[in-house]
From TrEMBL:
Coiled coil: none annotated. SUPFAM superfamilies: Urease metallochaperone UreE, C-terminal domain (SSF69737), Urease metallochaperone UreE, N-terminal domain (SSF69287). It is found in: Cytoplasm. GO terms for cellular component: cytoplasm. This is Urease accessory protein UreE. It comes from Halalkalibacter oceani. Belongs to the UreE family. GO terms for biological process: protein folding; protein-containing complex assembly; urea metabolic process. The keyword Methyltransferase does not apply.
Length: 160
């Protein structure tokens, strides 16, 4: 099946949650315009978009019996929880100095798992947890993204 455009987003469409076939992408693939993937039900699809990238919930196919939509894979991440503006400044400076892509969401900074970052967290004294997250948009320095109802912090544990 060939798909050439995003026809909507699950947030804005009426759909049966049980009938959604997911195309699972790595976050790096969200900016790609040409992809060949298999849905969660085993259907082979070719995505050929003109310009725009993809985000969680983008619908590429919809009819009475099926909806095919985009979601990202769960992957290990750090959720950094600065307690003060000073902690936020210190950890943001260190992450920026390393060109670490991040998502800033409310009072948290979310980065992909990289064990070498734990040194920064200890040195700055910032609290963080390891969690599995779906990165629903390509990493950029941005303050908001839509939450996935399946987003899980299972296996999360705190560090001090």
């Amino acid at each position: 099946m060939r798909m050439t455009k995003v026809i909507g987003n699950l947030e804005d469409m009426q759909h049966d949650k049980e009938k959604v076939e997911w195309i699972e992408l790595d976050w790096e693939e969200l900016n790609k315009r040409i992809l060949r993937k298999t849905t969660t039900t085993g259907r082979e699809v070719a995505i050929v978009l003109d310009e725009q990238g993809l985000r969680y919930g983008d619908v590429l196919f919809h009819n009475d019996t099926s909806t095919i939509a985009i979601r990202t894979k769960l992957e290990p991440a750090y959720v950094i929880k600065p307690a003060t503006l000073t902690e936020m400044g210190k950890v943001a400076f260190e992450l920026g100095n390393r060109h670490t892509p991040c998502i800033i969401e409310d009072d948290e900074i979310i980065v992909r798992y990289d064990q070498t970052l734990e040194v920064i967290f200890r040195e700055t004294g910032v609290a963080y947890v390891e969690a599995e997250k779906r990165f629903n948009e390509p990493f950029k320095y941005k303050g908001h993204h839509h939450h996935d109802p399946d987003e899980s912090a299972s296996a999360a544990h705190a560090h001090s």
